[in-house]
Design the sequence.
């Protein structure tokens, strides 16, 4: 059973629109949540972390967390072609536990 | 430029051979990790180290070993490579032990034939 689930995509979004990426997780004890971006052939890069229920905004990115529904999402506003990448959701149980569980990623394509 | 350096970038290896993937970081991060990334399976933790002198097993440790003699270096060794170890290997580090905020190296693409 997959612990962190993401729609593999591809998700195609017109340039300038909002891209919405979703992630669900199975472990209710999870405390920390992360979004990584991975360009094709490159390494993952951390773009957002969120620890509390609600929204966290950073520039054009907004992470949303709902622990009751075990759901975390990433919104990208004013999508740009440079946002085309695979987005990895990662979940961690608690501090001190080294297991960071990654989803398989959603491939996002921004259409000019 | 501060960061994580992995070597080699890619390697074709005969089955049964021993191989060490190198990883060096210059950010003085305490924690370091080795992941493998396979299509459809995502990133999976192989081994980790909370601090120099300590190591731990991750999700898929079998067939791999690590050492952490100092803060900067965290080599991954395949004692006797098998084709199922064909993968892209990423080394990563975190400033704080237990943090999920990791910096990744550029990866090593390993093919075992």
Sequence:
């Amino acid at each position: 059973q997959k612990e962190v689930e993401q729609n593999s995509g591809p998700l195609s979004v017109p340039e300038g629109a909002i891209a919405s990426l979703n992630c669900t997780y199975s472990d209710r004890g999870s405390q920390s949540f992360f979004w990584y971006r991975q360009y094709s052939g490159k390494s993952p890069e951390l773009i957002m972390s969120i620890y509390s229920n609600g929204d966290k905004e950073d520039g054009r990115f907004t992470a949303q967390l709902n622990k009751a529904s075990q759901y975390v999402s990433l919104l990208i506003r004013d999508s740009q072609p440079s946002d085309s990448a695979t987005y990895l959701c990662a979940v961690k149980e608690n501090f001190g536990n080294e297991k960071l569980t990654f989803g398989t990623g959603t491939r996002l394509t921004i259409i000019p | 430029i501060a960061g994580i350096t992995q070597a080699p970038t890619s390697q074709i290896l005969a089955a049964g051979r021993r191989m060490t993937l190198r990883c060096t970081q210059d950010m003085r991060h305490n924690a370091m990790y080795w992941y493998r990334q396979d299509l459809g399976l995502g990133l999976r933790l192989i081994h980790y180290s909370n601090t120099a002198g300590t190591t731990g097993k991750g999700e898929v440790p079998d067939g791999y070993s690590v050492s952490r003699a100092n803060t900067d270096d965290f080599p991954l060794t395949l004692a006797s490579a098998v084709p199922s170890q064909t993968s892209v290997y990423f080394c990563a580090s975190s400033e704080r032990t237990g943090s999920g905020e990791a910096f990744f190296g550029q990866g090593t693409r390993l093919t075992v034939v």
